[in-house]
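User:
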Amino acid sequence: MLRAMISGKKVIVVMPAYNAAATIVRTHAEVMAQGVVDRVIVVDDASSDATAEIASSLPATTVHIHAKNRGYGANQKTCYRLALEAGADVVIMVHPDYQYTPKLIPAMATLVANELYPCVLGSRILGGQALRGGMPRYKYVANRLLTAFENLLTGAKLSEYHTGYRAFSAALLRRLPLEANSDDFVFDNQMLAQVLWTGATIAEVSCPTKYFAEASSINFRRSVTYGLGCLATAVSYRLARWNLLRLERYPQAGRRPQGAYLD
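Assistant: Predicted structure:
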C-alpha cells in the first residue's frame, strides 16, 4: 500500500498495550488501511497474554516490552519518548482494544500536520452517540460532571477530558514534562492539563463509541480513584494559575521543565 503523505510529515501511531492479543491485529489492520501512517509503535506493559508476540509479527511495527507492569501512564511515557526518538512529526495514540475507530486517523493527523491544531482529541461525547455506543450510564454521568468541573477550573470548553484517542504535534510533546505525571490512569487527565497550561488550543472530532467484551475498561473502584485524581488535577491547575501552588507538572514561565522531551 502506498502511503499518502500529509504535508510531508511523518505520522507515527502509538499503542499502549496490555493484554490486547484478542484485538490488536484488527486494530493494527485498520490503522494501516488509512494509508497515512509511517509506523506503529506498540509498548507492551508486561502482558500475561501473547500481545507482544502478535505485535512483533505485524508489518511496519516496532514493539517495546516493559519487563514488569508499570501502569497505563508509564506506558504512554514510553510511547511518546519512542515516537519522538523515531522522528515523528505527528503522534497519534490509538488503544489496541478497538474501542476507538482508526478511521479518524487521517482527519486527526491532517489537523496536526497542517499546523491548524497541536492537539486533537477523538471525543465520544460530541455527536451524542456515547450511550448508544454502549458507554455505561454511570461512566457517562461521571464523564459529564467531571468535564464540567474541569472546564470551570481550567477555563477550557472541551466536551470531554477522558478520551484515550489523541493526536499531538511533536513540537507540543517536547514541551510537556510528562515524567512529572502519574504512572496510572490519571496521566491522561494530567497531560491535557499540561497542554492547556502551555496555551495550546485543543481541537475535538466526534468519535463513535464501541464497548464490547474485549475492550479494556477499569473497574468501579479504579474509576473512583481516577475521578478523584481528575478533581485534584483541576484544582491543582487552578491553584498553579493563581500562583498559590508550584508543581513540576506546570513549569513557571522561563523555567526549563524537567522530563520534557526537548531537543
